[in-house]
Amino acid sequence: MSVLDDFQQWKGFLSERVGQAKGLGMDDNSIQDIAYELGDYLAKDVQPQNEQEMLLRDLWKVAGPEEQKMMAELMVKMVSDGKQ
């Protein structure tokens, strides 16, 4: 089973990766930049596996670059604050 099959698993996976990045000394801006790049890749090249991912992809596609960056920041914040 892929982490993309279940949204809760995806958030857990993302939370672990953010924690690892912070543990390696990455600052929030660098983590958010990577999240933006990942969001762009997922929206363009990966088929959504559930309703939540479909919604995120659709929002990403209609958002401008600044809005996409905000979405990436919010995803990082959501998994960083433990509000999964």
From TrEMBL:
Pfam families: DUF3243 (PF11588). InterPro entries: DUF3243, Uncharacterised_YmfJ, YmfJ/YflH_sf. Gene3D superfamilies: Protein of unknown function DUF3243. It comes from the Bacteria. This is DUF3243 domain-containing protein.
